[in-house]
Queue: 2 jobs
Job 1
Amino acid sequence: MMLQQTQTGRVAPAYGTFLAKFPDVRTLAHAPAMEVIQAWRGLGYNRRAVDLQRSAQAIEHEYGGVVPSDLKALRALPGVGDYSASAVACFAYDRQVPVVDVNVRRVLSRAARASDELSLDETRRVAAEWLAPGEAYRWNQALMDVGAMICRIDKPLCAQCPLKATCEYRARGLNKGPRPERRPKQSPFEGSSRQKRGGIIDHLRDTAGEGVSLSVLAKVIHPNGHKDLTWLVELLEGLEREGLVEMTPGARRGSARGIVRLPG
Ligand code: SF4
């Protein structure tokens, strides 16, 4: 779940620290939410910390603390999509299912259909067809590695690729063609709601359980001043709905002295 939206280099150190603090499903399920959110520091998209704990609670209550191996059961857990469900089923339980991340999608699109990006449904069809029988564990990881290191977006290293003999993309010379058109970039992070939401949670991490008043929080996010607190209350309400903050009634009303804190 950490890898859903964060690069491996940032996940690797956080993963070890997180597991040291929450070594099993039970510990995670029973921890104060505040501690889980604290331990998510540096990974971004804090909602995943809440989802992960809610998943642990569901696993504890519905599956006796044992992570299910069935795709449908995994998929029903909070914050678990197709990628995470199939990765757990395959890499933890050796289930013979394809695992499609963004790199695997590119490799299969190119190698099987000479396309830069097939639809997700079509990619899943190809992934299921191509799955090496009995070898899903190694096959999926191999495809991920080929996608990450060889079949790069720009200038794929086809001469080193294990799929080069049968790759449709290469056969048609598309690997030497102009770069594929980039998808429109995500909206800028600077000044975005996402940045402000992240800033709020980071500040609440630093203030531990005591919380902070709306007026202080507003200054942290807008150091140059921002008298109207409506924007802040709206952001906080969203964060509260997601289980990331708690607000006193005063804070909900927009009172400058209302208190916000991480959930206990
Ligand atoms: S041969 Fe080239 S284009 Fe085809 S899968 Fe390998 S790296 Fe990608």
Job 2
Amino acid sequence: MNKIDIGRVKGKKILAIGAHPDDVDFSCGGTLLLLSKQNRIVLACVTSGQMGTHDEDSDKTDLMTVREREQREAGARYKASQVLFLQFPDFFVSEQPKRLRKRLIKLLVRVRPDIVITHDPWSEYFPYHPDHRVVGFAVYDALLASTLPLYLQKKSVAGVALSPRPELWLMHPHEPSHAVDITSVYPKKIAAIKLHKSQFDGVFVWEKVEKRLVKIFSGVGKEIGARQAEAFRIISPEGDAVFSTERKSKRA
Ligand SMILES: [Zn+2]
């Protein structure tokens, strides 16, 4: 696994797309904290996590409002310039594939990111959720489509096609290629996760979750000689082995 020198990623726009509020905080919050120092961050949630409770008396609309607020609060920790909610139905994202692809293409063409971070659709990681897989594949497909002007015309998507294709960082990857040392910001990452108070409802007990997090991120850390690290599989338009953002910065 290659260690990313995150300090060398400068002046980029990062779009982090999660299926639900809290996904990016759990999986890549440390990296977002580090990237936020020299780059612009935009967060997008495909759903607002309306099903994310074990309380059968919970009202879906209320929960949506609460979870969007929690994600905005966490987004402020990364100085996110925008926190966007596509408001697809939680747990049922797979039932609207065409609409999802078009919304994601519009998002990509509007935000024009240099780096897109999202779920690894091939991962069987904890915690499994079908929306993670569906969003991962949809973002992957939308990325290519957003670079094709004739595709945008055919689908009536306004805007200029992306060029070059943004780099894709898949979080919690099945086959990690890179990792970011997040030791210096680990307490801040944990603090951002804890802002999602609605998720620690008695079934998900914080102490148990925290133990699991320590195991995951210290396990990745061992791979690169760090106490805590977050793993990614980076798919670059210039090939998997190259951290193209670094090379582009040097040429600029
Ligand atoms: Zn999720």
